[in-house]
Amino acid sequence: MMRNNNRQLFTLALLGFAAVILYATAGLSEVGRLVPLAVLVPTLVLLLVQLCLDVAPGFVQKHSLLEQKDVFGIEQMRPTPAEEATSSAASRGRRKLSVFAWVAMIPALVYLLGPLIALPLFLLLYLKVRSKEGWAVSIGMAVAMFGFLYGAFVAVLNLRLHEGWLWNRLGL
Amino acid sequence: MVFAFLPGLSGVTLMALAISFTLTWDPLPAMLLFGALVGGATFMGSVTAILFNIPGTSPSAATMIDGYPMAEQGLARTAIGCSAMSSALGSSFGVFVLILLIPVMRETILAFGSAEFLMLTICGLATIAAVTRGSLIKGLAAAGIGLLISFVGFDSRTAELRYTFGSEYLRDGFTVVPVFLGFYAVAEVIHLAVTGRRTISGKSRAGELSGSLIDGAMSVFRHFGLFIRSSMIGTLIGMIPAVGGTVASFVAYGHAVQTAGKDRGKFGRGDIRGVIAPEAAHDAKDGASLVPTLAFGIPGSEGAALLLAMMTLHGLAPGRELMTNQLDLVFALIWSLFFSNWMTSIVGVLAAGHLAQLTVLRTQLLAPVIFSLAALGAFVYKNRIEDVVVAFGFGVAGYYFKTYGWPRIPLVIALVLGPLFETNLQITLQLQRLGRINFWTRPIVLVLGALTVVTLALPFIRPFKAGKPDKAL
Lengths: 172, 473
Known about the structure:
The structure holds two protein chains of two kinds.
Chain A (H helix, E strand, L loop, with lengths): L1 H25 L7 H22 L1 H6 L11 H4 L11 H25 L1 H16 L4 H22 L8 H6 L2
Helix pairs in contact in A: 1-2, 5-6, 6-7
Chain B lengths: L1 H4 L5 H11 L5 H26 L7 H13 L3 H35 L3 H18 L4 H15 L2 E3 L4 E3 L13 H20 L17 H10 L1 H16 L5 H14 L14 H24 L5 H12 L6 H5 L2 H29 L7 H20 L2 H19 L5 H25 L9 H23 L8
Antiparallel strand pairs in B: 1-2
């Protein structure tokens, strides 16, 4: 049930995206809005139909074509995929939040510290805090990442990478 | 080769990561690298399918049906030897067909004007939406969203800014490198981390190899008729825009079962023909899939879309120019594909036992490395922090697309095809208005239009043929 609700929410989010684009399209000139509208209108209709199908999954089962898997009938031949790690919805939800938080941390760190420091630091923190690896593995991999970044981009390619807001602020 | 060995990741993930690293290269080595990446990923994905019942790449799922039972019977080496030989010979078949078609391709391209390119783009997008996993509605909607994303930025016709919402960054639109990195590399790793798999393969010990490699390799010649037919299936399917290796390998597997006669019952229990057919078709498809990509700029798969993105970034335009004045680059790609397939098969067979150890690599170690490389790849492209935000934003979106069964291929291919679609639509409308062309009387347009209608109608026609008309809508 929860999964179905999430499915609907995702379709709703896509519909929201299309609605925002529709709103922005209204502000374009008559010539400028022609091509976007030619794509936007059918996309909105398809998303609305999909939302209705998500809300009424019984209807989909009755009319199986609406969930047509593939025209070549591959799904029927495809063997059952290998077993994935079984976990409760709650622990999966916690893991998801945790992964998203780590993912959000990367752009923030790159902005603050620049990629040369941010990426090895992220690697060190992730390995030590989330993966609970030992210090030797965590530091070793972070140093290897720094070596790769410095060697490939600074020493060999001579690129001037973003220095980081924090260092600029501190005048370093 | 190594990436294809890691289930959950794929050659496409590596191609996404590689785009940004080739930016400073000349086009020739970049083409060689991408040819090698397209060719190298195919065979190795089958080794994990045979050893662990886990396909390294999606098309390898067909090899798994008979490959894994063979490994269970102590014939892992035989299955891998057969897979390697079938894969190498199948790819040679596809490359041979591609070389034969090059002179014809040039003539064909010259017959294409803006109206034909417009219809070809629509036909390609319709095919992608119809044949990719997930529902037709989701596929078409994803293609629509991809096109809408491609419209973001400066409109060269009206000089208006579209959907930028005041952002300086969005004035140039979304660039494909961060989007692809996010949608594939980041999304796959988020998925691996969220599902909580301890190791990449889900197993804690690497598989052991047994059986005879030579016997496996020779079996391809014992069933040479099946090999040729399967290669032809792969070649034909590869040439259809957007129909990928998964379709090719499963259709060939189905053909092997249908033509097996009384032996049909052996399939699914470790029949070597169930390895030969999908491997030959899957690899033969690689060369043939370059036909629509190089001739018309219509990518046949995620890999071809990434190849196209790389070519665009290096200022290479598929079509007339590429097929006439830059034919050396085309042949570099072809030979790279050819040799990488053979090398992967040879090295793969020799190293399969050692590489199997990689599949027990812990996700917890791999995830942060791929996140970091994706961030780096997105950042170094234009040295902009916004690209990293876009990559990880699309990574989260890609994760949800994967989780809720929305196909990602239509979106990324539509994103690549968006400018082609828009430019040709505008030129066609203008020419039609001026009376220079009549869109509805051009034979290629009509044929492609009919193909599009048939492609979209196919899911609705099948139940009628199967005697279930009440379920059609």
